[in-house]
UniProtKB/TrEMBL annotation:
Signal peptide: none annotated. The keyword rRNA-binding does not apply. It is an enzyme of class 3 (hydrolase). The keyword Hydrolase applies. This is N-acetylmuramoyl-L-alanine amidase LytC. PANTHER family: GERMINATION-SPECIFIC N-ACETYLMURAMOYL-L-ALANINE AMIDASE (PTHR30032:SF8), N-ACETYLMURAMOYL-L-ALANINE AMIDASE-RELATED (PTHR30032). It comes from Clostridium magnum DSM 2767.
Length: 458
């Protein structure tokens, strides 16, 4: 809806949208001549003497065309005085949410991905690589959905973060405002852009035997807020794989399509892909490579303890019996020059006699598995922004979550009916639960009932 000359201009939103005009005081419709149909968006000159309209039209065969028109306003008459010439129709329908932007100071009009001479619509001055949704005429900036351009040269000057709207605007101070979901963000495009420090990634550059479906986590040294996932590429040299990016505090988490087994993979995060909330810091280009593992990788020994040692060569957690100190464990400690060990569980699970044989042993335990779980969570440095919750009665669900939890340094909370009846465990949990922002429950209602989650966190 637009207001000019105490009149309301409204596009009715029908299949062939008409422009309707009403008296702003009485709301009585005014019959202008001629009738304006197929109106996508309109804009006015500052003096209100001219109106501009874009129009898209199509045929049943699928072809579509569009143009921008100029009308003079004379009393209750609209007279067409100019029309653009966009060439032959094509099969690609233009997006319907693009505005008409009049730049009288520069004598230009921006319509979709094109810039025309405001006084001669047949003169095409520039074509951008995507439709334009907002313009800062003073600073010569044009904003598309994925990039911000120099209005004069058409050169992309920075990337836009992910957003879910085409409704964006500049304020008088030159800040760009836009929405992503329910949240509104503001970017000061005139502020100098600092660079985020070199990140740490999991997997690390050059790492091997990475599971094909594991997310990639890139940790920066300061908080980040916005990401443009269109500027993230994962490739095996033959194909690119779809990505979905999200941000948690200072971490960029990249989920992706399953990668092929036994392949060399390259990740590229382009410059200015991520930034903080006000756009004052963004990333340098980041590239890293890793290789995926075989479809099957068997790690086995002659018994469960030897198998545990073989597994520990990939991940240093070793299975022992209550009193059994296997020869393979002694050899492993010697080969890897282990100087510190943590024993998880009380003497009823792992005897004191066995613990004395371990180098630098420190026992961590509680009165039951839930209290022991709390002791472990309090002892080690975990990233509590993501927390996985699984039943403590059977360990299948916890085992399923352990790989993803490990790669993101996230904890696993054992939670079921027994946890909420353990006073000591619930007391320990009070100090931790406020840190747990994103919580992922592994398993169905029978494993971790909803009322247990509610009792813990509400």
């Amino acid at each position: 809806m637009w207001v000019k000359h105490l009149e309301l201009f409204i596009i009715d939103g029908g299949w062939s949208p008409r422009l309707l005009i009403f008296d702003a005081n009485s709301f009585q419709q005014i019959q202008y001549s001629s009738t304006i149909e197929e109106a996508g968006d309109i804009a006015f000159s500052q003096d209100g003497k001219n109106m501009y309209k874009w129009q898209q039209y199509g045929w049943s065969a699928g072809f579509a065309g569009s143009n921008v028109f100029k009308y003079s306003i004379d009393g209750d008459k609209l007279n067409e005085v100019g029309q653009s010439n966009l060439g032959y129709p094509n099969l690609n329908r233009d997006p319907l949410d693009t505005p008409v932007i009049v730049l009288e100071g520069q004598g230009k009009i921006v319509y979709k991905d094109k810039v025309f001479n405001l006084n001669n619509l047949t003169e095409l001055k520039r074509i951008f690589s995507e439709p334009i949704y907002a313009v800062d005429e003073k600073n010569n900036l044009a904003v598309g959905k994925t990039k911000i351009y120099n209005l004069e040269t058409g050169e992309a000057v920075r990337f836009m973060p992910n957003h879910s709207t085409s409704n964006m605007f500049f304020d008088k101070a030159g800040k760009l405002h836009f929405f992503n979901g329910k949240d509104m963000y503001s970017l000061d495009l005139s502020a100098p852009i600092g660079k985020l420090e070199t990140p740490v990634s999991v997997p690390a550059n050059g790492e091997k035997e990475i599971p094909t479906d594991f997310p990639i986590i890139i940790k920066y040294g300061s908080e980040i807020d916005l990401v443009n996932e269109n500027n993230i590429v994962i490739s095996d040299g033959k194909s690119n794989y779809g990505v979905k990016a999200l941000i948690s505090d200072d971490m960029l988490i990249i989920a992706h399509e399953d990668l092929p087994y036994s392949s060399n993979i390259t990740l590229e995060v382009g410059e200015d892909t991520i930034s903080n909330l006000d756009g004052s810091k963004s990333n340098n280009k980041f590239t890293m490579s890793f290789s995926t593992g075989k479809e099957y990788n068997r790690m086995a020994g002659t018994n469960r303890y030897e198998t545990s040692v073989k597994v520990s060569q990939e991940m240093p957690i070793i299975l022992v019996g209550k009193d059994n100190f296997p020869e393979e464990l002694q050899q492993y400690i010697s080969d890897y020059d282990i100087s510190k060990t943590y024993v998880i569980g009380g003497s009823g699970v792992i005897s004191d006699n066995l613990v004395t044989k371990l180098p630098g042993a420190e026992r961590i335990y509680g009165s039951d598995r839930y209290e022991t779980n709390m002791k472990v969570l309090n002892k080690f440095q975990f990233y509590f922004g993501n927390t996985f919750i699984a039943s403590g009665r059977g360990f299948a669900d916890a085992l399923s979550a352990s790989a993803l939890a490990g790669i993101s340094e996230a904890p696993i909370l054992l939670a079921d009916e027994s946890l909420v009846s353990s006073d000591k465990a619930m007391y320990e949990l009070k100090n931790l639960r406020d840190k747990m922002k994103m919580k992922y429950t592994v398993g169905g209602e029978g494993s971790v009932p909803t009322y247990v989650i509610d009792k813990i966190f509400k």
